Structures are given as structure tokens and as C-alpha cells.
UniProtKB/TrEMBL annotation, chain A:
Membrane-spanning parts: none
Species this chain originates from: Nonomuraea soli
InterPro entries: ChsH2_Znr, NA-bd_OB-fold, Thioester_dehydratase-like
Name of the protein this chain belongs to: ChsH2 rubredoxin-like zinc ribbon domain-containing protein
One Pfam family of this chain: zf-ChsH2
ChsH2 rubredoxin-like zinc ribbon domain boundaries: 10-45
Leader sequence residues: none
From TrEMBL, chain B:
Residues annotated as domain Thiolase C-terminal: 256-377
SUPFAM superfamilies: Thiolase-like
UniProt organism field: Nonomuraea soli
Alphabetized UniProt keyword annotations: Transferase
Domain of life: Bacteria
Pfam family for this entry, one: Thiolase_C_1
GO molecular function: acyltransferase activity, transferring groups other than amino-acyl groups
Protein name stated in the entry: Acetyl-CoA acetyltransferase
PANTHER family in alphabetical order: ACETYL-COA C-ACETYLTRANSFERASE (PTHR42870), NON-SPECIFIC LIPID-TRANSFER PROTEIN-LIKE 2 (PTHR42870:SF1)
Length: 116, 381
């Protein structure tokens, strides 16, 4: 499922690290992983660790699986333009705008839990 | 709205429409479906295969290309053809590009078709999603267009107070239309309670939020307005044809704000081409893969303000008079165009909107492939 731009990102997730690309020229953070900065078109970049905290944008409860699967759409707290999807790991439903934290699971996957 | 007519506005027309039966299992190949729909559309126009010099379709690995369909019908070599990659979001651009080809003189008469065994052979959402974004979604069980629309619908509910009852009203109204449509697959009336009692698929969507998976084909004939006037049907002019995307196009499958679709960016261009505005539209065929896509397009095509789609339903213009994909059948877009043509010819029977003079017909508004396409059609006066 990975591609040549994204393989290194998934390797970091497998090690329990949430990082996104940071443009070496203008500092823009970007995700998903890709070669060029969409803002200044520079090709130089570095990995930047980001706080694994996000806000809930929306979610669905997929009812065709047993048990049902809750999938959340979140935005990173430190980079609100970065959208990620993951599974919700709590007994209750998320609420809009709720602050959540990343948990790393086998797959590898980045999933989300209520922030303590 | 300022007049800014393009060179091709009203220069081309839809001169014929054709359908196969809609079913859950056609028992025949997609090639057979395509040929049947094309021959029906040509017959409707009073034309033959030898009159066709252009052929166009769109597909996502689920249908037959023009290079198979043309020879199967013994067509001569086309002077123009189009085999567009894409699903619902490009359905109307196929017709728009055919209109451009005719207006530019590349072809005289183009047949556009869409043929799918979408229930018995190629079920939507069972193949891996196209595009690089899928790798960030599929591991979590996010793999179907339905789920992306449900995610967007939830955001609309959170931000604007849109309710299940609003979505249900769309399903109920379209079913009432389908009851009057002999071609429709679902002709038993439903109530809001039936909607609310239908089983969950992916919350906030219930079964009755979702379109039908359908085997079937539809075709339309595009020719010059001048030629259409010499044929046997009332010409339906192509006043505007636009395709493309807005913010969503730049952000792939995760648009920054899923409560605003590519249609919002496209609408001013579309209306500008036709020299018309939302209040000039008599009837709208709004891409209804799910109830929510109707609601968001009522907003994004300017029939009401952003966030007011739910309340606007009380007073809305007529939409999806054939029952739409929710109740007539899902042929991925062209059956919307064909219904618009029937309405503008005043041949829609019990479901006719009296005096219909202009119609909007739209494609998937941009949640899967991040672009959309749409037409404004006008009865020739
Ligand atoms: Zn940059």
C-alpha cells in the first residue's frame, strides 16, 4: 500500500513516531508525504516530529462490521491543515472538536483516543 | 447574473435519449447494455448508426470502451472519441466535451453512453480506491465513497444543525417521484418513519440514504442545434457545460472543508456560461449517490445559503423527478441528463414539471475524485 514517497513515513509510524514533512525553504508542514512543497515548490525537506495531538473533525460508525468500527477524521493540533483518518479507541463516541491523542498499533496504524 | 456566453453556448443540443431496463441482474454483458442504450437513443432521435461520427464514455475499469462498442455496432471510424477515466464526478463532462467537439466541428453527431452491471458484476467500493490517498484510509476501514460522504454529512450536521429528518425528506420525496416513473426500480412509497427505521449502514447514513446498485445503461445523442431542429424531437440546447474543481482539487481526497464541494467553485462559471442564475432553473437533477449530496448541492449551486439546505427543502425547486439514483436506478449520471431532457421536452408524463424551460443536471460533487461537472440545458424556443 505504500509508495516511494510514503514508505519512510510508514516506517516511522511502525516505530511509534508521528512525523510530517517540513519544507527546508519555507517551513510549511505537509502530509501525505510527497516530494515538493506545494507552497514554494522546493524539493528539500526534513522530517519534523509533531505533538501526537489532534482535534476531531468528524466521524462515522461503520455498522456493517462486527463489532461496529468508528473511523475519525482529525486535524493535527500543531498543523490544522493536516487531515488524518484513524480508528477511534474508546467506548463512547467522539464529540466535535474533541482533543485526542495518537496511539500506535500494529499494522502499522495511527489510532486515536480521548486525551486524558 | 452577467451575460458571459461562451462560443459554444446553445450551439449544440441533445437530440435523443435511450435506456436499457434497470435491474439487479441484467443477465447480459456491459457491451450488450451499451449497444442497447445507444440504439435506443439513436432511434429516439430518428438517426441511425451511420449518422454517428463521435462516441464517448467514462468508466473506472467497470465497462466497455468506445473501441469495443463502435465496432460491435458496425460504426464507421469515429472522427472524435473520448474514453474518460472517472466515475460519477465526470459523468456530465463527457456530454460537455462531446458538445465542445460538435461546436468545434470535430464531429457532427456524438453518442455518449454509460453502461454498468453495477450490482451483478462490478460493485462499487469493492475494488481499491484509486489514488495515493487510499493508503492512509483503507487500513482503518475507510474504503468506500459512501463512507466519505457519511463523514462529510456528519460535519454538515455538526456545523449547521442538519438532521436525519432533513436527509430523510430527500429520500421520501424522491421515492414519491419514482412511484410515477415506470422505469424506476423502487416504486413503493416510503414515509419519514420508514426512512428512520431503515438499518444503519455507516452512521449517520441509513440504508435509505444510499443509492441503488443497478445494472443498466443510458445514452444521449449530442449534435448541432441546427441539425437537432431538423430531427423529430424538441431540441434541448446545451447552454452551459463546466467541469473542474475548487479547493478540493488541490487537497486530494481530504478536502479542507467537506461541507463545501467543488460545485460551489464551478457554479458561477456554469451559470455565467448560460447567462442564467439559480432562480431561472425550473428543475434540477442533482447527483444523489446519497441523500446528503442533494442537500449540499442545493447550497453549492446557489438555491439557498450555505448551511440552510435542510430548511430549504420545505420550499425547494423540483429535483430528481425520476426518483434519482436513490429510487430510479444508478447509472452514474447519464440518467440525470436523460430525465432533464424529458422534462424540457415536456414528455415526463405524470412527473412533468409544468412549463419547464431550463434544467440543471449535475455530477458527483467532488468527494472521491476531487472535481465535478454539470450542465445547464434549455428547451429550444
Ligand atoms: Zn516550501
Amino acid at each position: 500500500m505504500t509508495d516511494r514517497d510514503s514508505a519512510a513515513w510508514w516506517e516511522r509510524v511502525a516505530e511509534g513516531r508521528l512525523e510530517v514533512q517540513e519544507c527546508s525553504r519555507c517551513g510549511t508542514l505537509r502530509f501525505p508525504a510527497r516530494a515538493f512543497c506545494p507552497r514554494c515548490r522546493a524539493e528539500d525537506w526534513r522530517w519534523r516530529a509533531v505533538e501526537p495531538v489532534a482535534e476531531v473533525d468528524s466521524w462515522i460508525v461503520e455498522r456493517r462490521t462486527t463489532p461496529p468500527t468508528t473511523i475519525v477524521r482529525v486535524r493535527l493540533a500543531r498543523a490544522p491543515h493536516v487531515v488524518m483518518y484513524g480508528n477511534w479507541r474508546a467506548e463512547r463516541e467522539p464529540s466535535p472538536g474533541e482533543r485526542v491523542g495518537a496511539v500506535f498499533e500494529d499494522g502499522p496504524k495511527v489510532n486515536w483516543v480521548p486525551r486524558p | 447574473m452577467a451575460k458571459r456566453l461562451l462560443a459554444f453556448s446553445d450551439r449544440t443540443a441533445l437530440a435523443g435519449i435511450g435506456y436499457t431496463d434497470f435491474s439487479k441482474n441484467s443477465g447480459v454483458s456491459t457491451l450488450t447494455l451499451a449497444c442497447r442504450a445507444i440504439l435506443a437513443a439513436l432511434d429516439d432521435a430518428g438517426l441511425g448508426v451511420d449518422d454517428v461520427d463521435g462516441i464517448a464514455t467514462h468508466r473506472v475499469g467497470d465497462s466497455v470502451p468506445p473501441s469495443t462498442v463502435g465496432p460491435a455496432l458496425g460504426m464507421g471510424a469515429p472522427t472524435w472519441y473520448l474514453d474518460q477515466f472517472g466515475g460519477g464526478s465526470v459523468s456530465h463532462s463527457v456530454v460537455g466535451q462531446a458538445a465542445l467537439a460538435v461546436a468545434a466541428g470535430l464531429a457532427e453527431t456524438v453518442v455518449c453512453y454509460r453502461a454498468i452491471n453495477a450490482r451483478s458484476e462490478f460493485r462499487m467500493g469493492t475494488a481499491a480506491s484509486p489514488g495515493m490517498e487510499a493508503q492512509y484510509q483503507v487500513p482503518y476501514g475507510l474504503a468506500q465513497p459512501l463512507q466519505h460522504f457519511a463523514m462529510a454529512a456528519r460535519m454538515h450536521m455538526i456545523r449547521y444543525g442538519t438532521t436525519a429528518e432533513h436527509l430523510g425528506r430527500i429520500a421520501v420525496r424522491q421515492r414519491a417521484h419514482a412511484v410515477k416513473n415506470p422505469r424506476a426500480l423502487m416504486r413503493v412509497p416510503i414515509t419519514l418513519d420508514d426512512y428512520l427505521a431503515s438499518r444503519w449502514i455507516a452512521e449517520p447514513f441509513r440504508l435509505l440514504d444510499c443509492c441503488l446498485e443497478t445494472d443498466g445503461a443510458c445514452a444521449v445523442v449530442v449534435t448541432s442545434a441546427e441539425r437537432a431542429r431538423s430531427l423529430r424531437r424538441t431540441p434541448v440546447l446545451i447552454s452551459a457545460a463546466a467541469w473542474g474543481g475548487g479547493d478540493s482539487f488541490l487537497s486530494g481526497a481530504s478536502p479542507a472543508d467537506p461541507t463545501v464541494t467543488a460545485a460551489a467553485e464551478l457554479a458561477p462559471r456554469l451559470y455565467g456560461q448560460a447567462g442564467l442564475g439559480p432562480s431561472d432553473i425550473s428543475v434540477a437533477m442533482l447527483y444523489d449517490c446519497f441523500t446528503y449530496s442533494v442537500l449540499v448541492q442545493l447550497e453549492d449551486y446557489g438555491f439557498c445559503a450555505k448551511g440552510e439546505g435542510g430548511d430549504y427543502l420545505e420550499e425547494s425547486l423540483p429535483f430528481n423527478t425520476h426518483g434519482g439514483f436513490l429510487s430510479e436506478g444508478y447509472v452514474h449520471g447519464l440518467n440525470h441528463v436523460a430525465e432533464a431532457v424529458s422534462q424540457l421536452r415536456w414528455e415526463a408524463g405524470d412527473r412533468q414539471v409544468p412549463g419547464a424551460s431550463a434544467a440543471l443536471s449535475t455530477s458527483q460533487p467532488g468527494y472521491v475524485l476531487p472535481a465535478t461537472s454539470a450542465l445547464i440545458l434549455r428547451r429550444d424556443s
